[in-house]
Design goal:
This protein has 269 residues and is α+β, with helices and mostly antiparallel strands. It has 8 helices and 12 strands. The chain has 2 domains: 154 residues, 2-Layer Sandwich (Ribosomal Protein S5, domain 2), CATH 3.30.230; 105 residues, Alpha-Beta Plaits.
């Protein structure tokens, strides 16, 4: 069985406070976007689960990746037999696009169908939340208003249909853990839900990503990309998550080529 896990981008990102457990509470809106990996899981008869990955290389840190961890959790809980897992990695890593979390959520969805586990939506969300703060979002996989450590979701009405998106990855890996070290949490004067209720033309001066100040200092190229998107006619441009990916929203397809800035994708929502 094959699923094509998709990435997400952030519309605004406020880091509102540091929690006693060391994590940070945030506020954001997550939007699914059509930048995809491919994950295939098939039953096998070898009594050994095999994982392989092609495409973008997953950093080897001696620990199981999120897909392997997702399988292990479900295997131990539901006595799932061994499988072959093949991941084709296309969503950049350390890019603020949530690709690893998307792959883990996809693993849960596949195993639920492949072995007829009949997991409820709530059970799938609970399993995903054990893997990472934003994994559960990819079970829902629709535009959501996000709070907490990225694990609290609320529906939000937001129509971005017919807008053109340009998403640019500048081949810079940003560690989310390190990114949090350089930000000072603060309560925003306006919450993101209120800002997004206003016309998109007003977002440029109001909708902020709190990571940008420190990340732009470390990686000026990322700020340059954001500025070039605005110079090319974007109504709104921002870094996604803790970076390094930057996106622009346009009323009409931009005439500018962004090939020299890094790998990029264009699509209409």
């Amino acid at each position: 069985m094959v699923i094509f896990p998709n990435a997400k981008i952030n519309l605004g990102l406020h880091i509102t406070e540091k929690r006693p457990d060391g994590y940070h509470n945030i506020e954001s809106v997550f939007i699914p976007v059509p930048i995809n990996d491919a994950l295939e899981i098939t039953k096998n008869q070898t009594n050994k689960t095999n994982f392989s990955s092609t495409g973008i290389k997953i950093p080897a840190d001696g620990k199981p990746n999120l897909v392997e961890r997702a399988f292990s959790i479900l295997q131990s809980k539901y006595q799932i037999p061994t499988v072959d897992i093949e991941l084709i990695k296309n969503i950049p890593i350390g890019a603020g696009l949530g690709g690893g979390s998307a792959d883990a959520a996809a693993c849960i969805l596949i195993l639920n169908k492949l072995f007829d586990l009949q997991l409820s939506h709530k059970e799938q969300l609970n399993l995903a939340s054990q893997l990472g703060a934003d994994c559960a979002f990819f079970i829902k996989n629709k535009i959501m208003y996000i709070e907490g450590i990225g694990d609290k979701f609320t529906d939000i009405t937001l129509d971005l249909s017919n807008y053109h998106f340009i998403v640019i990855y500048p081949d810079i890996h940003v560690s989310t853990f390190d990114a949090y070290k350089h930000v000072t949490p603060k309560k925003p004067s306006n919450n993101i839900r209120e800002i997004l209720s206003k016309p998109i033309e007003t977002w440029k001066n109001q909708l902020k990503n709190d990571f940008e100040i420190s990340i732009f200092k470390q990686y000026p190229k990322i700020e340059k990309i954001k500025n070039q998107l605005y110079n090319s006619g974007a109504i709104y441009a921002s870094m996604s998550g803790s970076g390094s990916t930057v996106y622009g929203i346009f009323k009409n397809p931009p005439e500018t080529s962004f090939e020299n800035l890094g790998k990029n994708w264009s699509f209409v929502m």
